[in-house]
Amino acid sequence: MSDSAKILLAHGSGGRRTRDLVRDTFLPAFANPFLETLSDSAVLPEPPAGRLALTTDGFVVDPPVFPGGNLGSLSVCGTVNDLAVAGARPLWLSFAVILEEGCPIDLLETLVAGAAAAAEEAGVRIVAGDTKVVPRGRGDRVYAVTSGLGVVPEGREIDDRRIRPGDAVLVSGPVGDHGATVMACRHGMSGPGLRSDAAPLGGLVEALLSSGADVRAMHDPTRGGVAVTCNEAASRAGARFRLDEAAIPVRPEVEAVCETLGLDPLYVACEGRLLAWVAAPDADRALAALREHPLGTAAARIGVVEDARPAGAPVILRTRIGGERPLDLLSGSDLPRIC
Amino acid sequence: MLFDPRAVAALARRIRAAASALGRRVVLMEVCGTHTHAIAAAGLRRLLPPQVRLVSGPGCPVCVTPVDYLDRAEALAALPGTIVCTFGDLMRVPSSRGSLERSRAAGAGVRVVYSPRDALDVARAEPASRVVFLSVGFETTAPTIAAALAESEDSGIPNFRILPGNKTVPPPLRALASDPGVLLDGVLLPGHVSVVTGSRAFSFLAEELGVPAAVVGFTPADVLRGVLELVEQLRDGRAEVANLYGRVVREEGNPRARTVLDRFFEPADAVWRGLGAIGSSGLALRPEWAHRDASRIEVAVPEPVEPSGCRCGDVLRGSIEPPECSLFASACTPDTPVGACMVSGEGTCAAWYRHERRTAKERP
Amino acid sequence: MCLAVPMELVARRELEGEVERNGVRRKVSLALLPEAEIGQHLLIHAGYAIGAVDAEEARETIALLEELARASEEGR
Questions:
Q1: Is 0.90 exceeded by the ipTM?
Q2: B67-166+253-296, what's its fold?
Q3: Of A194-198, A203-207, B95-99, C12-16, the least confident
Q4: What are chain A's partners, defined as 3 or more CB pairs within 8 angstroms?
């Protein structure tokens, strides 16, 4: 294979190869006037009125390309979604990659195209970037780091501390698709219905908020899935959530992967799902707004907020057979097991 | 249907009716860790009447793996050019001084696989490395490892070895059922072990020891059917081995799997964490496969250290419930496990911690 | 102690099988169940088929539970 097909240390040296890589790979994909200046900083116009929201995230995924997305699209979606669930309208992103020497350039091109397409879908611009190369063996092909800047319009208060007993817990669709798909790839499983749900949630969030429902808080259940996200939200809210296992949508394909590898879908990551806590009287309206959006057609009401109890778990699951158990934070749910 | 709440409720009602005719409290043991997990995850204990007490047995292969096995696995992983492949279950089990997960962080060659065949693939892909598969598990898993060994022989993969640690279920069950110090009125038999061994492998329970037993599946309805069967046998003064998992378990099991197993393994005495040494309860590689035996690799293994205060042994014998251990949920949690029963997802303590802690605390 | 999942055998070449459950496929070894037939549901553990599901027995179990559920609804 020729040199030109692989990343060399020189691609990160700041010299001619770096320039060529930026010119041939990044600029055409992310095309926008802020990036094209190639200055040290993107100097941006004054943002719309509101409070600024800033987030940053590192992305590592094995394999870097999977059904329904890739590391590039994932990194843009993840950052856009962190802004969106805070009630912010995402505006600008930075995108940095750390490449391992020897990483195929066509892999990089695939990831950049994925990032560009996700940014387009999300209506954000990638206005700053960076490339570094580490020696072979010091990294795993490619890592991405994205930061995002957005604006929370006046009057929006999305905050776990606003969650109240009686509120409804909604989810925008089936859970666990992303994590199950990636695990399936790693362990030799595949199927046409098995795809990452990675998607930018900005549009879905706007649809929900414009329904007029009193949305108290929102989260995207990424690492640790619904179970961990709910535990964290419950602690911050000082409340207890009761979830109904039978109401939580899980695709049959995801169920099959989880059964085979001994995983619990409630602990498996989503990358394009929204959890929302909504005032009870507004729950139906909020659910209807979610379902009208293409990303929320399978939205469901999955639980209710209760008063916190001094003893006991912050999240309780009503099981399918009508039993009850705490849905704890736990470690080790990410390893496939045979027992 | 197997998760139908109406069927579950109906079974629970029948169990209550049958139990009321018992006239005493009975102790039933679910031998298999996957049962322990299923019982806890569905909240089944709460559906049982006070006369029926379910205790967990020694059926979690991770939990009964002695600490020196893990120490040896870590020592092997630290050898240059050696890759230890393991089921994910073993990664976080505490060894004397760490765990495989910590060893990996320290630079040792450790990989998680789903199948012994995946370890064979590693050996194929890295012919210059020595690949050691951690061979743990009961009769369900042992034949899959034997089949991987057969493949390594037949396709000439010289750099694949196993660290033998497999165990068989009937010997400890016989030991527990014959031990006057262990209260045991009936046994829920492990469904997937029985797929290989056949229900016949457990007939000694009823025929020699007079203990009622039932081979059961893993859904809530399966487990409750098993409990109902045992309570009815006890009520009627019968002792049989009932096969309630006939959809996959035959009386004779899977003879082909046992043939493949016998080609490579032979019975050997084995140490069970918490239970001690039990005769002919383990599987050792036959001498002709010494070249596949990673326990013959020279490596310095430090003196094993067992955690102090840990009552995993009593938990595995079913003589205490996890909250009766003073470390439970205080020093010993899934994030900081002291004993093996807290580590594995199907370990009794982990299952209790995750699913039944609230009830446990509410108990007098 | 042993997770095992029933999956349908959809293709095989000698001892290499392909099984499917809910639209998800995986390659498995049939070395422990060489007599497996296409269309059969097999019990899969750690990448190997270890047993076959007896369709008749499975139907009987379901029928039994359906009867229990019905009885439960009728309040018996």
A1: yes
A2: Rossmann fold (3.40.50)
A3: B95-99
A4: B, C
